[in-house]
Amino acid sequence: MLMDLRSDTVTKPTKEMLDFMISTPVGDDVFGEDPTINKLEALSASLFGMEKAIFCPSGTMTNQIAIKVHTQPGDEVICDELSHVYQYEGGGISFNAGASVRLLQGDRGRLNSKLVRESINNPDDVHKAVSRLVVLENTGNRGGGSCYEWNDIVEIGTVCKEKKLGFHLDGARLFNALIAKNEDALSYGTAFDSISICLSKGLGAPVGSVLLGNAEFIKKARRIRKVFGGGMRQAGILAAGGIYALQNNIERLRIDHDHAKAIEGMLKAKSFIKGILEVETNIVIAEVAPDFDLSNFIQKMSSQGILFLSLSPNRFRMVTHLDITSAMINKLEYSLKQF
Ligand SMILES: *Cc1c(COP(=O)(O)O)cnc(C)c1O
């Protein structure tokens, strides 16, 4: 019984999801003729009350397309220093959009309106890059699955409107936040200009992300997706996994959150754990004591079929998802006894 806590991207499609995927009608999506992709895009847009949506192979691509559409080369993108768009997208902001980045030090990956306001350049100062876009991430990956307070989002959105900046949400794990905070997708649709959601994280689809925005924005995004090489053909097979995920796997994220809380409790009882970021969703980030051998710990646990990643020499991460069962959580508790 392998317990893979490395990421919520490791989930495998269930038999029900696969059956649904192979029985779906398909067509050439670059011609706009894949009925299943069209259905996924319409379903996603209506969930958030946004005009249009576009299906893409990855969350990196949806974020990068959004940044490219919102900015011109030389513009500045404002985001938290921990954000995925900066940390984990291969320098794509400069590579794909030719934009520069203003990194802010938020709280576990979360910005606030004061930080954002102070970081916006004077548009009349020719020395400065033009501040054009604010990117938030909810939940915050490197923040340990941290959730925004709704008021903070609204206040940052107000600053963006006032200063005429675009407002993009990297919502790779937005559904975890919606469940944890008891929020609704429609409010998010009104707050942001564009939203990226991942189907292949906690929702359990094998592949895919969706970018949402108004009709004009998604029209531009469709062109950029083609330029990035993301125009797929009979990819309705993949989109069907996303439809299945949106229809069946949102509410059950609570289970993942409960499992993560249980892991937090087990780790807190261990003397070698120096600290844990408060668990809000499905990500547990813990710090070990300075004299504790983290790589030995990870190796021993892995030899017992329990996999997780180190984030630094003294920090590790465990992520729960729909392939983690309560039997596995018990096994983890048992295996932790030797440490
Ligand atoms: C996983 C993730 C993405 C997208 O990653 P892909 O692997 O390209 O799908 C984007 N943002 C965050 C916060 C993520 O965790």
Please give a structural write-up.
This protein folds into two domains: 3-8 and 252-338, Alpha-Beta Complex (Aspartate Aminotransferase, domain 1); 13-248, Aspartate Aminotransferase, domain 2. With 339 residues, the chain is α/β, with parallel strands linked by helices. The chain is built from 14 helices and 13 strands. Helix 3 (59-70) crosses helix 10 (215-227). The strands form three sheets. A seven-stranded mixed sheet has the order 2-8-7-6-5-3-4, with helices on both faces. The structure holds pyridoxal-5'-phosphate.
What are the key terms here?
339 residues, alpha/beta, Aspartate Aminotransferase, domain 1, Aspartate Aminotransferase, domain 2, 7-stranded mixed sheet, 4-stranded antiparallel sheet, 14 helices, 13 strands, globular, binds pyridoxal-5'-phosphate
Specify the overall morphology: globular
The top level CATH class name of the largest domain: Alpha Beta
Strand order of the largest sheet: 2-8-7-6-5-3-4
Number of strands: 13
CATH topology of the largest domain: Aspartate Aminotransferase, domain 2
Poorly predicted residue ranges: none
Give the ligands present: pyridoxal-5'-phosphate
The largest sheet is: 7 strands, mixed
Distance N terminus to C terminus? Answer: 21 Å
CATH superfamily of the largest domain: Type I PLP-dependent aspartate aminotransferase-like (Major domain)
User: Architecture of the largest domain, according to CATH?
Assistant: 3-Layer(aba) Sandwich
Quickly count the domains. 2
Radius of gyration: 20 Å
Tell me the number of helical segments per DSSP (H or I, 4 or more residues long): 14
Helix content: 40-55%
Q: Which whole number gives the mean pLDDT?
A: 97
Summing up helix and strand content along with how strands pair, one would put the structural category as alpha/beta
Order of helices and strands: EHHEHEHHEHEHEHHEEHHHEEHEEEH
Strand content: 15-25%
